[in-house]
Design goal:
Strand order of the largest sheet: 3-2-1-4
CATH topology of the largest domain: Rossmann fold
Bound molecules: nicotinic acid adenine dinucleotide, adenosine-5'-triphosphate, magnesium ion
Structural class: alpha/beta
Shape: globular
Radius of gyration: 19 Å
Largest sheet: 4 strands, parallel
Strand content: 5-15%
CATH superfamily of the largest domain: HUPs
Number of domains: 2
Order of helices and strands: HEHEHEHHEHHHHHHH
């Protein structure tokens, strides 16, 4: 695998680049404050740390949005992040909202993927309810590894105003997180979307983040062919092809929805 870690100087540069980006986004929108979902996972945790660095704790609001499938540990970690950063937050249980969707459309009951994605979309609705009401931007938490393979819910956790950590591979998220002061136990947590019980990213994706990050950096975002990537990383060509397929299949999630060409 390739070593994607930053040097000390690069860590400081990355932090400054992202905090400047957050300030620019807020300024350009003519607002002062942001809101983001806090899951207790590393992506939302680092984004909260960087947002507080950029804007001050008084301008960052967290939403902790437990579902029945959320672990108590993750939800208490999410609250710990907000408390450690001295930012305001609300805890809102989302399952009654999800239940009302299923009461309206019971056909989806038991379809854990459809219902899981609905959980992510209910969270997006709540983020925007707060953003509209309080004049805030919604901060996204998507990183490069997830975005490249479409590992997010379209118009769920993907429905945000900007993604400050969009350029970081997962390993780099962990490294920068420690650098900006995220406690080790949070930086080292097993990534999970928690859209259904016992879900983990690596199980569902069928690949470890270390391998995924290396293939993305070498082949999808880098210059090497499938065969050269396979040799360079000592992974099967089939694995590189699978990542390429996930990347291509999810292109629609990274684009503005298209319409027909205009006719004169
Ligand atoms: N070619 C195409 N062109 C245009 N649109 C296309 C399309 N193919 C599907 N679609 C549309 O996209 C929909 C499928 O996309 P989507 O609804 O996102 O659903 P889908 O990609 O099937 O599922 C979301 C995936 O992201 C994972 N996830 C979600 C949320 C958070 C996290 C996390 O890491 O925390 C991970 C989740 O576990 C699952 O694996 C289809 O129902 C269809 O409406
Ligand atoms: N229970 C939750 N409460 C509030 N927001 C949530 C919750 N679950 C998910 N989210 C939002 O959806 C985003 C996407 O989830 P994702 O799992 O990719 O990130 P994460 O939990 O921060 O980190 P990791 O990928 O390591 O688990 C989160 O960063 C967070 O903003
Ligand atoms: Mg998570």
């Amino acid at each position: 695998m390739i070593d994607l870690r930053f040097s000390e100087a690069e860590l400081a540069q990355r932090r400054d680049h992202i905090t400047a980006f957050i300030r620019e986004q807020v300024d350009a929108a003519g607002v002062e404050e942001v809101v983001l979902g806090l899951s207790g996972g590393i992506d939302s945790t680092i984004t909260a740390y960087l947002a507080v660095d950029a804007l001050g704790a008084e301008n960052v609001h967290g939403l902790v949005l437990p579902a029945t499938v959320s672990s108590g540990e993750n939800m208490s970690d999410a609250e710990r992040v907000a408390q450690d950063l001295e930012m305001s937050y609300d805890v809102i249980e989302i399952e009654p909202i999800v239940d009302s969707l299923l009461a309206a459309y019971p056909e989806a009951e038991g379809d854990h993927e459809a219902v899981g994605n609905a959980r992510a979309r209910v969270r997006a609705v709540l983020n925007y309810l707060v953003a509209n009401h309080e004049g805030r931007l919604v901060l996204g938490t998507g990183n490069r590894s997830e975005a490249a393979v479409g590992y997010f819910t379209k118009y769920g956790d993907g429905a945000v105003d900007c993604h400050p950590i969009a350029n970081l591979y997962k390993a780099q998220v962990r490294q920068l997180a420690r650098y900006v002061g995220v406690p080790d136990d949070l930086a080292e947590k097993t990534p999970t979307a928690e859209l259904w019980a016992d879900q983990t990213d690596e199980d569902e994706l069928g690949i470890s983040y270390d391998t995924l990050d290396s293939i993305l950096a070498t082949h999808i975002d880098g210059p090497l062919s499938v065969a050269a990537t396979s040799r360079e990383l000592e992974v099967e060509e089939e694995t590189v092809e699978e990542v390429r397929e996930m990347y291509e299949r999810s292109a629609h999630k990274r684009q503005v929805p298209p319409g027909p060409e205009p006719l004169n």
